[in-house]
Amino acid sequence: MSEQGNSRPTVGMIGLGNLGRPMALSTLAAGYPMVVHSLSRDEAADLLERGATWADTAADLAAQCDVVITVLPGPAQVREIMIGSGGVLARMKPGSTFIDMSTSSAEIALEIKALADPRGVAVVDAPVSFLAKAPIGESRTSASLQIFVGGTRESYEEHLALFEALGGLPEQIYFAGPNGSGYAIKVLLNLLWFVYETGTAEMLAIASQLGLDLRMVQRALCASPTQSNVLQYDVNSVLERGDYDEGFTLDLVCKDIQLGVALGESNGVDVPVARLVEQIHQRALASYGPKSGEMSVIKLYEDAIGRPLRVSE
Q1: Mean pLDDT throughout 243-263?
Q2: Distance (Å, rounded) from C-alpha 130 to C-alpha 170?
């Protein structure tokens, strides 16, 4: 179905968590008819007030929609919803499109695609990343999306308007290549972020032991070739408030790192740095539990030196 003029497709969103819900709100605001389903109807309350329709099951949602979008924790959940007990693919209409915006794997995408092709259902992977800016010492107040699209170029072009409605910046919606390519970029992005996070924690621990002012160190390094978003933005919640960001939990971090390690090794690349970062995060997981915040690795270093890494401002 065309996405031009008044012929917008009906969009189904499965998963209304920290990522799915704001994307659904953005899509509704852009005028797309929407059906939603999540673990709890309460998660959809504001969406329903704005005109979305609730589906009692994911399969019921699929039968009503031209485009089905999943935003789920990982590959196992995507597979179960689509071709397992969730039964979504079996209820999708010929000519419809399945778009997975989770952080998942090419193997799952290709397994679903092999079953979807005979049904006339297009399969697209389109995981996302947040882009946001804020001065050092200030929290991020807004975010826009990068979207990495794997599939056919025809599917990419057909759904560009929808990707923008979901919150994607036009210049940051990338056609990555065949199915699985979008997942690959997102997995590599996440893996490098966790490498930066671990290195940042180690560097700050050394600076603290030396008695250096951590805000001064942060400013100096952000003005140098060592600048990173982790150092400039993400670490502020820990330095200022002791907030390790439970909006993304450590069990999901470890899942994402494992996807990155597997991606390298399955393609013949030895990844000793990634394996070491995985081991350090597994130590944090054992120490603080699966639902601790994504930056809990910093707490490992704090515990090792016997003091929190904080700024006085």
Answers
A1: 94
A2: 14
Whether 68 contacts 27, CB under 8 Å: no
With tokens 């009692």, the residue in question is 56
Strand 128-131 and strand 97-100: pairing? unpaired
**Confidence class of residue 131 from pLDDT cuts 50, 70 and 90?**
low
Alpha-carbon distance values, 298 to 164, 221, 234 (Å): 35, 18, 12
Domain 185-305 sits in CATH at: 1.10.1040.10
Fold match flag (11-178 vs 185-305): no
DSSP conformation class of 118? G
What token pair was written down for 128?
Answer: 């996302």
Right CATH for 11-178 from 1.10.530.10, 3.40.50.720, 3.40.50.300, 3.40.50.1820: 3.40.50.720
Residue 261 half-sphere exposure toward CB, CA atoms < 13 A = 16
206: which 2 tokens? 């050394």
pLDDT class of 313 with cuts at 50, 70, 90? low
Domain boundaries, the chain: 11-178, 185-305
Task: Quote the CA–CA distance of 234 and 256 in Å, as a whole number.
Answer: 18
d(CA 228, CA 183): 22
Coil/strand/helix, residue 110: helix
The rounded distance, in Å, linking the Cα atoms of 192 and 94 is 39
